[in-house]
Design goal:
Elements: H1 16-21, H2 23-36, E1 44-47, H3 53-64, E2 68-73, H4 76-84, E3 89-92, H5 93-96, H6 100-108, E4 112-117, H7 123-129, E5 130-138, H8 152-156, E6 160-163, H9 169-181, E7 188-193, H10 197-205, E8 212-216
Parallel strand pairs: 1-2, 1-4, 2-3, 4-5, 5-6, 7-8
Helix pairs in contact: 2-3, 6-7
Length: about 220
């Protein structure tokens, strides 16, 4: 049994597969952008590691909020897909190496206002990517559980480091209302039968996916 207060109507313009992809990743992106970073129209948002579920939602939501969106990836193919979906600037961090934060600033014409970072090991570069007064919103640690960084770039740049995770029922309601009013749809990498769950996990762990992997019961 599921409590009635935990059940929400499916956004009418989304398919069942698109709606299934929405809740966790979409809510995480919503809270990071609007509850924590408090993004404003006209700001520039950097999304680290485009291709993951939260990253693709963050890109869509930031664009819908009137922001410029910069994305990073180690894959030119993923950068091209992000550009086709509306990303304004793409930076290949594999090509840029340790200077990826400088590459972001050069490609963007300056520092960014907000960074959405789920990697963890990239915190130092995320801070370095910011314009004065920037906000770095962090969650997860796909790049590792520990990070070492210099203090001065944060203090001299007046940069805020904001932790977040998931969201509240109120925030989920806000996300659903935004989805109904906007035109983008969740990015789905593939839809697979539940029996193929292991293969889906392998694809995700290998970093081959772009968007959400959806499993369905027969």
């Amino acid at each position: 049994m599921i409590a009635a207060e935990n059940v929400y109507p499916r956004p009418g313009r989304l398919s069942w597969h698109e709606a299934a992809a929405l809740p966790l990743a979409g809510l995480t992106a919503w809270r990071a952008l609007f509850s924590r970073a408090r993004v404003q129209p006209g700001e520039t948002v950097l999304v680290i590691g485009i291709g993951g579920g939260v990253a693709t939602f963050a890109m869509h939501l930031a664009k819908a909020a009137g922001c410029k969106v910069v994305v990073t990836s180690s894959s030119d193919e993923k950068l091209a897909k992000a550009a086709a979906l509306g990303a304004d600037v793409g930076v290949n961090y594999a090509t840029a190496g340790d200077e990826w934060a400088a590459a972001v600033k050069e490609a963007n014409g300056g520092g960014v206002d907000v960074v959405i970072d789920s990697v963890g090991s990239t915190w130092a570069g995320s801070v370095d990517s910011c314009a004065p007064g920037g906000r770095v919103v962090v969650f997860g640690g796909t790049g590792g559980a520990k990070v070492e960084m210099m203090v001065r770039p944060m203090t001299l740049g007046q940069v805020s480091l904001l932790g977040t995770t998931m969201g509240s029922p109120m925030e989920f309601g806000q996300l659903l209302a935004a989805v109904e009013a906007q035109s983008w749809v969740p990015v789905i990498d593939s839809v697979r039968p539940l029996a193929d769950a292991a293969a889906a996990h392998e694809r995700e762990e290998a970093g081959l996916h772009f968007g959400k992997l959806v499993l369905e019961c027969a």
